[in-house]
Amino acid sequence: MARTQYHIGVLFSQSGPYGVVSRSMFNGAMLAFDEIRASPDFPFDLVPIVADPAGSFGQYAVSSQELLGRNGVRHVVGCYTSSSRKDVIPLFEKYDALLWYPSHYEGFESSSNVVYTGAAPNQHIIPLIEFLLTHMGRRAYCIGSNYIWAWENNRILREGLSVAGGTVLAERYHAVGDTDFSKTIASILDARPDFIFNTLIGTSAYRFFQDFRAACIERGIDQPAEMPAVGCSLSEPELGEIGDGAMDGHISSSVYFSSIDTPANRLFIGAYRRRWQDAAPSADAEASYVAVKMLAAAIAAAGSDDVQAVRLTLPTLSIDAPQGTVSVDGPTNHAFLTPRIGRSKASGQFEILWQANRPVQPDPYLVQTTPRYAVRNSVPKLRSIK
Q1: For residues 167 and 161, what is the distance between their CA atoms, to the nearest angstrom?
Q2: Rounded CA gap, 327 and 316, in Å?
Q3: Domain 122-258+339-377 of CATH type 3.40.50.2300
Q4: Rg for the chain (alpha carbons), in Å?
Q5: Residue ranges of the domains in the chain?
């Protein structure tokens, strides 16, 4: 008897300024599709319909319209940037479809037509703020790509630092894809902050890491020790793009690193490397993998891909993901995830410096975990660096 087929949209840019991360997200999703197809636990197949916006902002809405309207799909796994997500949400609301959004993001959003399997701000920026105050200092210099991800994270950082008597020395924004940081680097070297809070993405981030390290070496500055770069988006595939001599010593706050030593993650890493020729998965690749697995579990529990039925069953489910147990919070459609802090190594991996002892409830609007509350009450309390 033939298995039922459900067509699922896949919407990731496999080229363009942030193509390295987006391709890893595509890879994570496709691995999950493969595993579901091979599993006897599911009486159906999820058939991906792939759309590639190629890093063009306007193409996300065009591709979404085609997937939802012409192809009639009810579920789409996709989008990396917040600008692309916000641009397509009205279409998902119009068609009453579900966007499975597998990227860390800045929060302050909750849609009944989006399932967020990437980290919310209380799962990455709030733990990072306390880590910085405990281990790095209170004087920040912010550099970011000029869109909502950087704006909102810098705002949250500023509020958290101000409570502790810290300060943001400057904020500098560059267009996505910009690679000329000479003036900003000169300004950073003049300011000598305790750390650089980096919200650049893609090729912009890689060039900044390279040029900043080179400028520090030229002046005899031990950049990782004296002016570390910190953030919430740097991942393993990107370390290779930064290259030897500049990839080490960066602090990243995330819910997943490929160096997590658990049976579930070892299986995931092995399967990912076999499927994608030894490539290293990113946190967003893991979140894409989780999104497809959670979608399959919800369809199995609901008995169909009906959007309302899937919505109702989601909060009753949990999966054993590579990062640990993941479940969905019904009121917000965001995932319970386990925060971690890592430091990049010359080997292209992250040393995990701290992790929460259990999955953290998402708080996308920072109602319960505002920067003021988190800093004053040490939530979560971090151990010392190993």
Answers
A1: 6
A2: 8
A3: yes
A4: 20
A5: 4-119+260-336, 122-258+339-377
Distance of CA 359 to the CA centre of its chain: 16
Residue from 7, 22, 97 nearest 56 by CA: 22
Give pTM, 2 decimals. Answer: 0.94
Q: What 3-state DSSP class applies to 148?
A: helix
**Residues 142-168: pLDDT tens digits?**
999 999 999 999 999 999 999 889 999
The predicted-structure confidence for 301-326, as pLDDT tens digits, reads as follows 999 999 999 999 999 999 999 999 99
- When pLDDT is cut at 50, 70 and 90, the band that residue 1 belongs to is low
Q: Which two tokens stand for residue 266?
A: 């070892």
DSSP letter assigned to residue 68:
I
* Phi and psi torsions of 23, nearest 5°: -65, -35
Q: Are 71 and 49 in contact (CB under 8 A)?
A: yes
Burial (CB count <10 Å: 0-12, 13-18, 19+), residue 241:
middle
